[in-house]
Amino acid sequence: MRKDLTAENIDLLFEDIKKISDTGGGDITVREYWGLRTLAYKINKSSKAHYVLLKIKSDIKTIKEIEKFARYNEDIVRNKIFRSDDSTENSRLFVSVKASDAKGSRKETDLDAKITAINIAS
Amino acid sequence: MIDKKNEDNFLRISLINQNVRLKKRKSCPLANIPDEEINYKNIDLISKFISERGKMLSTRVTAVSRRKQKRLATAIKNARQLALLSPVKKINVE
Lengths: 122, 94
Fold this sequence. Notes:
The complex is a heterodimer of chains A (122) and B (94). Chain A is α+β, with helices and mostly antiparallel strands and 122 residues long. In chain A, 30% of the residues lie in helices and 28% in strands. Chain A has 3 helices and 4 strands; from the N terminus they run E-H-E-E-H-E-H. Chain A has a 4-stranded antiparallel sheet with strand order 2-3-1-4. In chain A, a hairpin with a 2-residue loop joins strand 2 and strand 3. The longest helix of chain A has 15 residues. Chain A is globular, with a radius of gyration of 16 Å. With 94 residues, chain B is mostly helical. Chain B is 45% helix and 0% strand. Chain B has 4 helices and no strands. The longest helix of chain B is centred in the N-terminal third of the chain and has 18 residues. The chains are: A alpha+beta (122), B mainly alpha (94). Chains A and B meet through strand 2, strand 3 and helix 3 of A and helix 2 and helix 4 of B.
């Protein structure tokens, strides 16, 4: 899920989503803010957007409710819902939990070395 | 007579085999990366398997195993929808 051109309103938007999932008996296990990233192509005439990833454990009804919220909210440019595993590890784009304290660098993992070792001659 | 025939066969086979070169099969470059790590979030991993024009590279080029190529394909498609990868060109990550 991601948002466009909003400052600390992102955290408020998270609260809105949390409220929806709470009323449906959902549980938010992972919360990630990926920072203001440059989009690979323009969406709604803007070339940058905030990225937010949430892992929510709940039934389909509440997920549908959240999707509806995300679709009709004008601050959310695009949303995509995946069926996910139970792991609570941070993804490799992780910057911070809350959007308001986004800074610092990413930790190096052993996967990084593995990825840089891959070399495809084309 | 039988010996002569066998010799002939042997000659013919060896002549044919001179033109045949055995190609060594490349091993899967993703062999030591777990399946779950091949997803839309690992853009720098995925972007190694797209061409300069943003197209997916085929298994024939990269020698990725069939199962992992399947995961790669969905990962690339998802990343494109989320504007993490461009559908028309390769972009440098970070």
